[in-house]
Amino acid sequence: MTESMEGMMALGRAKNVVVPGRAMVAAPTLAPVAQLTRDTAELASRLAQGSRRHLARAITLVESTKASDRAQARELLARLRQDSAPTSVRVGVTGVPGAGKSTFINALGQQLIAQGHKVAVLAVDPSSTRTGGSILGDRTRMGELAALDDAFIRPSPSGNHLGGVARATRETMLLCEAAGYGVVLVETVGVGQSEVAVAGMVDTFLLITLARAGDQLQGIKRGILEMADVIAVNKSDGDNEAASRMAARDLRTAMRLITSDPHARRPPVVNISSYTGLGLDELWHEVLDHRDHLDQAGGLAARRARQQRDWLWALVDDELVEAVRQSPAVRAVRAELEAAVMEGGVSAVEAAETVLRRFAADLPASWVE
């Protein structure tokens, strides 16, 4: 698997390393362990001092797919887990397109910094399914926040990951915490059933919606409403104020209908305006109240522990898929199988079984035992 390959390459114990499912790779060009350790220690030290430049460098490491970078990223993350106990407030921000997520984060971030907080924004940008490219233009919509010294904004391409959440976002949160950012806001691509991925990495899941959204509100689906911890009706100003308050009232009613348990916590619904500042203080109070609710009797620690467990298996899934795709035995028949499936001569089920058999046959005996 990829992790095994990277680890063996970084160790540099052999001139050539044979990795299951991969061709023979040469290791001597990679940095030796001692050098990796020195560089990682220096990077961790600079992070603890709050260096924005070194934070950006560390994030680049965890986003990289190069074997040497991944080896150093693992060492850095292991060191940070030993040296620090994350205490930041992690908030995921999602909502229908046009709900004003970026403008909201820009306004809330400035307000939190004025109150003495350091704010990190991880803005996940949608990647093209055709070219793989991303615009990464979130900073332009958060210009005022980006100009502040206590703000750090990192746009990242979503890649192929479910829900538009970049694979390295979880690790990036740890790096931001290590650099002293007490508030980490994760802005997602949009809203939909796949956006539950972001709820698996934050403490509070914030849903931004609008009045008069019509079918857009229907598109939120019950699944997202069930996962929301706090709901905000944005653009509650000017001629839209009355309609926004009515929408908030309807959402409060919907929250009561989702569960019949009278003791269950129901997500609060707050009217906000990113332009006038209406409701931002109240909204942040609700976020902190939800965190306190989780923290009672160890609920916050248990939630983060479950998130780590789920992330473990998500990583295993990703690594297995990549190992199958890169297996020499699979690559040898891939084009032929794909052509057969497209022509209708072989079903997708039969082709998948062939791929898995080829991959299993390519594994060393020690893996099968």
Number of strands: 9
State the fourth-level CATH superfamily of the largest domain.
P-loop containing nucleotide triphosphate hydrolases
What is the CATH T-level topology of the largest domain?
Rossmann fold
Which residue ranges are poorly predicted, with pLDDT under 50 across at least 5 consecutive positions?
1-33, 127-137
Largest β sheet strand count, sense and barrel closure: 7 strands, parallel
**Helix count from the secondary structure assignment:** 17
Backbone CA Rg = 23 Å
Shape estimate: globular
**Would you tell me the overall average pLDDT?**
79
Order of SSEs: HEEHHHEHEHHEHEHEHHEHEHHHHH
The CATH architecture name of the largest domain reads 3-Layer(aba) Sandwich
CATH class category name of the largest domain: Alpha Beta
- The residue fraction in helices comes out at 40-55%
Distance between the termini: 16 Å
Helix and strand composition category: alpha/beta
Strand fraction band? 5-15%
Numbering strands along the chain, what is their spatial order in the largest sheet?
5-4-6-3-7-8-9
- Total number of domains: 3
Protein described:
The chain has 369 residues and is an alpha/beta fold. The protein has three domains: 2-83, no CATH class; 89-297, Rossmann fold (3-Layer(aba) Sandwich), CATH 3.40.50; 308-368, Helix Hairpins, CATH 1.10.287.130. The protein is 54% helix and 12% strand. It is built from 17 helices and nine strands. The protein has helices at residues 2-11, 33-48, 52-63, 67-83, 101-114, 138-141, 143-146, 169-178, 196-199, 215-219, 221-227, 241-258, 280-295, 299-326, 328-343, 348-361, 365-368; strands at 16-17, 25-26, 89-95, 119-125, 151-157, 183-187, 204-210, 230-234, 269-271. A seven-stranded parallel β-sheet has the order 5-4-6-3-7-8-9, with helices on both faces. It has a two-stranded antiparallel ribbon with strand order 1-2. Strand 8, helix 12 (241-258) and strand 9 form a beta-alpha-beta unit. The protein is globular and about 65 Å long.
